[in-house]
Batch of 3 targets.
Target 1
Amino acid sequence: MEVIILSDPQQAALLAARIIEKELRANPALVLGLATGRTMESVYACLAALHRERGLDFSRCRTFNLDEYIGIPAAHPGSYRTYMDQHLFRQVNLAQGSTQLPNGTAADLGGECVRYEAMIQEAGGIDLQLLGLGGDGHIGFNEPLSALLSRTREKALTPATRQQNAPMFGGDPAQVPARAITMGVGTILDSRRCLLLATGAEKAAILARAVEGPITSMVTASALQLHPKCQVVVDAAAAGDLQGTEYYHWIFNNEPEWADFR
Ligand code: GLP
């Protein structure tokens, strides 16, 4: 794992977007794993700008989102399909049918989870998985005690997560669906590269547990410590509780891999 600390949220989002840009330019048929949440909005704004202003081409790219709520239609304003349409899919030239999210209204939810895993396999696996960090340390909707080998499945959301996501449902946590389909921790770990983005002081304590704490299903993001190529991009506020910042800064300022991004 590598941790890159930038001064502010905008710089952190820009770096995440530029990492995606580099991968997509090297492999136009990239299989990209996508995440939702407020943190990602600036990443998608940067990608949309790169498409408009520097011709970043998504026409051969395929995408798989981490998760979707159960029981609300895709057209619901709070659905992750709506979020993705608004922030990314309508802003770039992704081909029709190339963007996948789990179907949270499938009659057979268990079958839908199996189908989603199979689609990822058929696409050749995920090349780069973008990840946010939930307040309880979740990645996707892998709430505390999610098995670290879990696959795509139904998951009940914690009250804290429903509270955290209430702004997208008129501010009322009771309106946030109680369940979601999410890629499992094991599904995420199968991606060839993981990129976690976290910004803001409210993420500092949980980020430190995820990155420098013990690997535990209580903080499913900590499983990323097992991943052979995982980068964590944060702003200074989110890095506030980390112990190893001096080393992390040294890596970014000296390792050749980061030369294009400094
Ligand atoms: C939701 C998503 C997570 C995401 C989290 C972070 O819970 N299911 O994948 O990481 O939001 O949200 P935010 O960026 O708004 O803090």
Target 2
Amino acid sequence: MSEAMKRVAVIGAGTMGNGIAHVFAQSGHTVTLVDVQAAALERAQATIDRNLDRLVAKERISAEDKAATLDRLSTSTEMHGAVADADLVVEAATERLDLKLKIFEQLDAAAPEHCILATNTSSISITKIAAATKRPAQVIGMHFMNPVPIMKLVEVIRGYDTSDATTATTVALSKQLGKVPVEVNDYPGFVANRILMPMINEAICSLHEGVAGVAEIDEVMKLGMAHPMGPLHLADFIGLDVCLSILRVLHDGFGQPKYAPCPLLVNMVTAGKLGVKSGEGFYVHTKGSKDIQVAPAFS
Ligand code: NAD
């Protein structure tokens, strides 16, 4: 591994942050995982521990590899200290423009001059985020997929001012993590979510209009289109709040009614039904179990 990119800070320890910290630590980087909530850091550590145990059980890594990975990983609720000697920061905090702008302004002030500031945003403009800093050439989208330790793709998004050097380093780093980077340009939703979210939204509209039930909609897309997971199950997995935020970015960015979030999605997020992370969305999810049942509201 390049010594130049050894120290990594990951901001946000939710669904994505724990996986991003995991893959960097497993591939030899020294990682500090940061969250404003100590409880999120504890959950993330427990998840990483469980996921590493699975890799040991499958004999993909040894027990020593697991211990060494955990040794390279620390957590903090204090962002400034955590990024002070970072070579790379990957921001994976809540999908809100105002929050990301604030975080990037602070990162720019606290991180060393050479440090690359990457964001895992699903849809927000990299160019807009970069404009909150004085180093737009060193700001880039590094969009991992969920679950990060398993999914191969990293969508690498160049902002308007992102330099060739920053892009080349990000592409090389992604490969070094065992991922497959794909370069795309900076338009709302990039490629992955511009295509995925309208499909998920349409599945929710189909449910809302009574075309079919939750299990039936997912079954059609699994058996008919060979999708490994139905769109409603996938929405639960991504987080319904995250889906809603992305659809709003697409709707605002393109100004076309086809991206308007389904009212059912808006209601569910308002009611705190966020999918896997809250225990209920279109399905009821039990912690530590893969078994799911259609949520009472839809059964
Ligand atoms: P999440 O809601 O699970 O976690 C977000 C975390 O950020 C929370 O723990 C929260 O406490 C923390 N946070 C909020 N403000 C913070 C701050 N100022 N400093 C540090 N931490 C802060 O969200 P997520 O699903 O992990 O999404 C994170 C990012 O990754 C978003 O930009 C999202 O669009 C993107 N993303 C999500 C998915 C997915 O499937 N969920 C996939 C790809 C990309």
Target 3
Amino acid sequence: MQAYGWSSHWEAQFRQVATSGQPGRVMAEHRDRFVVRTAVGEQWARVAGRLRHGAQSRVDLPAVGDWVVVQGDPDGTASIAALLPRRSVFVRRAAGDEAVEQVVGANIDVVWIVTALGRDVNPRRVERYLALAWESGARPVVVLTKADLSPDPSTDLQRLHEVAVGIPVHLASAMRGDGLDELKRYLTPEVTVALLGSSGVGKSTLVNALAGEEVLATASVRTDGKGRHTTTSRQLVPLPGGGVLLDTPGMRELGLWEAGQGVSQTFADVEALSVNCRFRDCRHRGEPGCAVTAAVENGTLDASRLDAYHKLRAELAYLASKVDPALSREREHQARVEHRRYRKILKRKRMDG
Ligand code: GDP
Ligand code: ZN
């Protein structure tokens, strides 16, 4: 179990939470069943009724990376009775129109935001990943892969440095082996590192290169066209020198989910500037004395970065109104009240006039 990140921390958590059963870590999820690794090996387990009924949302249910209490049931099957308190949880908005959350992984210490050299490099997408990574409680890092594709990666590196405020950007090539030693430094015992990024950027290849063997199927052997998740392959990969890699399915769109704190950390540069805005509630949309728009005008802040900041904030506000309909009804009511008052004022003005 040590190989999967078990430590005295989890031991203590287990003692507090469990009255019976044994500890295990969720390796993979398949519909309503989970592959759980315990001291005696891997087994399938379902969520116990009590845990399911007590869950307020999907976030309260097991996810890959969770440490759980596994119970053997009288009929010979196993069930997950409880989750040990998480150290972090990476949540995104699930694809689709409905505002529902999806847990990408739990108990992640470090997130590698993986992007491939060339066309894949997209500062706006990296900002999204960063916001969710910060919000999760993990420490984000940016990894630029396929370094072998260009003799001069400096332009791509520069674009990433501009959005990776205060965090490292690593250049790597799984193909040639560049940068792997640097990445291996993150992989120390008890640490879980999750790889996030679009499909095809080279996450599986990187995992295999770091593990020193073919533990994950890469694109070239995934012939079903749907990726590696048709078979229930394990998402957690223990490394020979310690540390665990958590592989995630490639994500086409990364919707934000309650990430106010994460957006603030991602845009620490913008928020630092805003301290000098004249108005405390400045929205940085051209108000007088706005230090943020001034920075755009004098060229110290990229206009597209400020635009991205506004967009992510707006997305969060919209999400909040969808998730909390009571709140949005209240806002609509307020808007109607305002509107009526405004019309009254107009009417009076007209009569006065
Ligand atoms: P994933 O979907 O992110 O897991 O991506 P894969 O690991 O399956 O890789 C996608 C494609 O990129 C495969 O064809 C790999 O051979 C290729 N690839 C992965 N790493 C590198 C690299 O460092 N350099 C180059 N040139 N190609 C790579
Ligand atoms: Zn301002």
